[in-house]
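Shipment paperwork, digital attachment
Item: protein structure file
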Amino acid sequence: MAMAAQKSVASLMRKTLDRQAAVARVKFRFKKNQVEQILLTYVRDGNIGPYSELLKVLQDCPLTDANYQILFEDCLSCVVLLGREMKQFVDVLCNVDWAGRSEDLVELFSRFMLSLVTAHTYHCPRVMTCLIKLFKADGESWEESPPEETVRLWSNVHTVIAQIVAIMPLTSDLLIQAVMDQFPYYKAGCFANRAYVHNLIWMSKYIPSLREQIMLTIVNRMVVMDVNVVDQSKNKSQVDTMFEMDVEETDEVMETLDYCMMEMLKWLEDERNPVLEIMCRVFERIVLPTHGIRHVQFLLLYTISISQQCADRVLNNLWVVAAGLHGLGPGALATRRTAASHLSGLLARCVRVPNTRLIKYLKIMAEWCHSYITATQEASSSSDNTKVHGAFHAICHAVFYLVAFKHNHLFSTKENIHFVESLNLPRLVTCTLNPLRTCPPQVTRAFSSVTRAHQVVYCQAIIEKNTRHTLHSTDLQFDEWFPYDPYTLPISGKIIWPLCIEYKDWLKDGDDETQYSGMKRKLETDDDDYLMMVTPSQKLASSLSNCISPGFKTSEMI
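Attachment content:
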C-alpha cells in the first residue's frame, strides 16, 4: 500500500511539473539570434540541453507570429548548420503550422525551404513529404468548389512546391514518389481522398511533366476503390443481413469514388488535350488489364465522347488487342477478352460513337471470326476447348451483344438488314467451336430473340443442346461482366448518364433513350410514399442499383 501511495504521489508530481513546463514554454519568447546560438552551441559544442528544449517548444506549443518570424529568420541565417545530423530539427520545422499565416510569414517560410533544399539536397525527400502531407488535412467535402480559406492554404503549399521544382527540376522525381507514398487509404474518407486528388490535379497544371504519372497514380487508386465497392456489393447480395458498420463503410467508399470521379471528369473537360491523350494511355496501362470494375472505365467513355480523335484511337487499339494483332504475340487471354468487352460496350453504350463505327467494327469482327473458323477447320487437329479458343469466343460474344443491343439501328432499313445478313451469323452460331455455349445467357436470349424475329438466324436448337450439355457439366462458368453497365454513382452520374444509351427491348415500342432520361423517368413515375421515405440521392442510387446488368434479363431470371 505504501509503495502504491508513493507511486501515485510521484505520478501527480510528474504531471504537475509537466504542466508547469508546458506553461513556461507557452510563455516562452524567442530573442533575436537566440535560435541561431542554440543551434551553434549544439553543433560545435554538443550542448544538448537548450537544443532539446527548443525541440519540445516547437513540437508542443503553437508559435506566435513574433516567435515564428524570429525562428525562421535565425534558421535562414544559419542554414549551413542544418546538415544530416539535424534531420530531427528539420522535420520539426517542416511540420510547423505555417500555411495559414500572413503573406509575409508564408514568404519567409518559402525562402527558408528553398535555402534548405539547395544547401542540403538530402533533405529534399523529407521536405517534399511534409509538404504533400498538408493536402491530407481534415475538412468537410464541398459541392462546386472548396472554401476560399482552404484554397488559400493549399495555394501556399503549391507555391512552395512550384518554387522548389523550378529551381531544382530533378526534385520532381522525389515529388512524385512522395505523392504515391502519401496517397490516402481508400477508407480514409471522402474529404481526404477528394482533397488529395484535387491537389494532385492542381499540381499537374504547373508541373506538366508529371501529368501522366499523376493521372496513373490517381486512376490506380480509384481502381482500388472500385474493386472494393464491387466486392462489398457482392458480399451484400450473398448475405441476407449485414452489420450496420459494413453498410456505412460501403456507402462511404462509393461516395469517395463518386467525388473522385467528379474531380477527374472536370480535369478532362477543363484541359482537354493533351490530358485526353494521357487518359487513353492510362486506360491501356491500368484499366484495360483490370476485370470486373464498374465505374472507373467510364472516364474512357467520357474521353471518347468529347474527342473523336481519341475515340478512333481507343476503338482501334481495343480491336488490335482483342484480335492479337499488335505484333508482340497474341497477348494474355484475359486481357484480350477484356478488350473485346470494352470494345463492344463502347460501341453499344456511348451516345457519341456514330453508327458508322458500329458497322465498321461489326464487319471487321465478323470477318476475323470467319477467318478463324476457316483456319481451325483446315488445321490437322482442331478442338472445341474454350480456353484454347477463348479469344474467338470473346469476339463472337461481342458480335452477338452488339447485334442484340443495337437492333433498332441494324434492322431499321433494308440496307442495314442486308448488312447484317452479309455478316453470315449462321456460320458463327453453328460452327463446331460453338460460341453460344459460353455466351452469357442474357446475351444469348436477346440475340436469339432479335435474329429469330428478323429471320436472320435460328439459335433455339443449339441453345437447347447447350442447355442439356450444361446440365451434365458443372465446370462451365459464364463471364457476365459488362464494363459499361448502367452507371450507379449519383453525383458524377449527372455527367455520365447523358452520354450512355440504355438497352431497349425490341418487343417494346418507343424511342431509344439515354440512361439519364431513363433514370429520370423511373424517378418521376415512382409513388409518392417512396419519395417521402428516402433522400433524392438515396432514391437515385437505389433505382440505379436495380438496373439489369447489360439491359437484358439476368441469367438467374432465365
